[in-house]
Amino acid sequence: MSGKLIDGKAFSERVRARVADAVSGMASAGVVPGLAVVLVGEDPASQVYVRSKGKRTVEAGMRSFEHRLPATASQAELLAMVEQLNADPQVHGILVQLPLPSQIDSAAVIGAIDPAKDVDGFHPVNAGLLATGQDALVPCTPLGCLLLLRDHLGDLSGADAVVIGRSNIVGKPMAQLLLRDSCTVTVAHSRTRDLAATVRRADIVIAAVGRPEMVTGDWVRPGATVIDVGINRVPNPAKGGDSTRLVGDCDFDSCAAVAGAITPVPGGVGPMTIACLLANTAVAAARAHG
Ligand code: GUN
Questions:
Q1: How many angstroms does the Cα of residue 20 sit away from the middle of ligand 1?
Q2: Rounded to whole angstroms, how far apart are CA atoms 39 and 192?
Q3: Using one digit for the tens of pLDDT, what is the confidence trace for 54-102?
């Protein structure tokens, strides 16, 4: 490949080490940040994420609280649990793992979380603070992408950035963060008329659509920086049977041949998401005791 690999795993280790330092500094003031993760149901991918979040939380010197509800849990049960965590002084961050079962209204649950404990940054108060340039808890995945971009490119101001995807979790907050760093931002999506031509204009491409290997090298401007947010499990015919492999939203080989730099999947954005979750939890705890 001609492009440089952006090693999110190595960078996330540095971020987690900084968080652990900050956490040990808070311990002298008697503060131990606590993160509560709520998992509803048995989705295997969500169980893997939740386990890994708990492990990293403890490694950073923080308290980890894991709460599980059955897939049949009612919205009222989940809201009662959120209320209990809002009131718990040992809990500084609350994360309700998404997606939730269909009988539960995600927006109602997110809206019930105390914005000061909303370490996902999904509450409308935090989304509004980010959109108006005020201090907010910022969604972890886009924050991780921004840190990787700044580390690789330095000052982002004036760069043409194209975000593919308009979700509340990644696309929209990513666009806000890039705008805050003075990029010229285009948000593209499934109805964008000529997606390839739009992406080809970009100095920075953020792919967050959830479509395996959709972005190909002929869409990428030579030298562009490509951040691949996708984590898609696809069949792996090379290995046969039921075997699968993880791929991003970008076709790695063709994109890497043209890009100036690119994140791999796995080992790119994924580890940064957890590192930023820990950072948000430490920030929420510091504010609670500030
Ligand atoms: N499911 C997939 N990504 C996320 C995330 O960042 N936060 C939560 N709460 N659920 C998710």
A1: 22
A2: 35
A3: 999 999 999 999 999 999 999 999 999 999 999 999 999 999 999 999 9
